[in-house]
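Allow me, if you will, to draw on your knowledge of protein folds for a short while. The matter concerns a single protein, recorded as an amino acid sequence and a row of backbone structure tokens. Could you please explain, in whatever detail you think fit, how the structure tokens follow from the sequence? I remain grateful for any guidance, and I place the record below:

…
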Amino acid sequence: MLKPVLNWDHGSGECAVRWSVGIEVEAGRVLTREQVVELADAVAASGGIASGIGTSRYGARLIVQAGSREEAVAKATEEVTQAAAKAGLPPGPVVRTEAVSEDEEAEDEEL
């Protein structure tokens, strides 16, 4: 469970919350264990995990702070793009995104 942490983002005028964001990218070729481990190492600094061993897509789930879903997806996409480059993975189109705020997660747990 994400712990509620609210921060006032003075730049956007919005209250930033933590988001769990999943990004999936088409690699165009089957990825090896070693390649995905490199991606996992690169996203670890952002509290991220990686996936994609034996598939033609790689992905990561990260925790980011943002004032909106769109901002959270944009921040996570940038981090995954940089991590993939660091890991030597091929660039490709983002084929799936998912973002859940800590508020949404808390509401789901209450049900």
